[in-house]
UniProtKB/TrEMBL annotation:
Belongs to the purine nucleoside phosphorylase YfiH/LACC1 family. This is Purine nucleoside phosphorylase. The keyword Metal-binding applies. Purine nucleoside enzyme that catalyzes the phosphorolysis of adenosine and inosine nucleosides, yielding D-ribose 1-phosphate and the respective free bases, adenine and hypoxanthine. Also catalyzes the phosphorolysis of S-methyl-5'-thioadenosine into adenine and S-methyl-5-thio-alpha-D-ribose 1-phosphate. Also has adenosine deaminase activity. It comes from [Mycobacterium] holstebronense.
Length: 235
């Protein structure tokens, strides 16, 4: 049996949040009206056709902790940055505003994962930890397909040279040059290289840059702002 994999990423549009969270903010930790966030999450659940009890959220902490989810959750899972499941029609959700949402799936084994890969988490191996958990759940690295969602691009992610060197040492392929000619980071490039080294062959990257695309939330561009949601599930 081969499962159908669904991957969804939201934009800023279609919600009820007021500025500066306008309008489809899905982050409940950014200072937005909780009523508006709840309404936006309900809209997302309806749009997926899954229902609110079939979306599993995280309280992300920029770490490398992975949780295997065996059923619906009433509340977000605390202190984790990656979710793995083998349960059909149960969506794993990651929220971002510049970090990399990594959506992973093995359609043959029926295993999916959603990963929040910011600079610190990616550097500490959260994507590799998620892949390890998928394999433990029955996946095969060579059968895993990955979508690296919209994130700040290397052209717009300027960092101090020492920071870039530190990330490059643990996540080779990340160090780059920005559009201004300064030192930068391209986390999606580093993650893709890491995954290929782990045996993953099917890797796609959303070309959109959160800092450059006004249709997307970007903390780096705007400071106080909302969060996008990226979801993956077995249909």
């Amino acid at each position: 049996m081969t499962f159908r994999i669904r991957r969804v990423t939201t934009t800023r549009s279609g919600g009820v949040s007021k500025a500066p969270f306008d309008s489809f903010n899905l982050g409940d930790h950014v200072g937005d009206d909780p009523v508006a966030v709840a309404a936006n999450r309900a809209r997302l659940a309806k749009a997926t056709g899954l229902g609110p009890d079939r979306l599993v959220w995280m309280n992300q902490v920029h770490g490398d902790h992975v949780v295997v989810v065996d059923g619906p959750r009433d509340t977000p899972i605390d202190a984790t940055d990656a979710l793995v499941t083998t349960v059909p029609r149960l969506a794993m959700v990651v929220v971002t505003a510049d970090c990399v949402p990594v959506l992973m799936a093995d359609a043959r084994a029926g295993v999916v994962a959603a990963v929040h890969a910011g600079r610190v988490g990616a550097q500490h191996g959260v994507v590799a930890r998620a892949l390890e958990s998928m394999v433990a759940a029955g996946a095969r690295a060579g059968d895993v397909s990955v979508l690296l969602g919209p994130a700040v691009s290397g052209l717009h992610y300027e960092v101090p040279a020492a920071m870039a060197d530190e990330v490059e040492a643990s996540l080779p392929g990340s160090r780059t040059v920005t559009s201004a000619g300064t030192v930068g980071l391209d986390l999606r490039a580093g993650i893709a290289r890491q995954l290929r080294g782990l045996g993953v062959e099917s890797i796609d990257a959303d070309p959109r840059c959160t800092a450059a695309d006004q249709k997307l939330f970007s903390h780096r561009r705007d400071g106080l702002t909302g969060r996008l949601a990226s979801l993956v599930w077995l249909e």
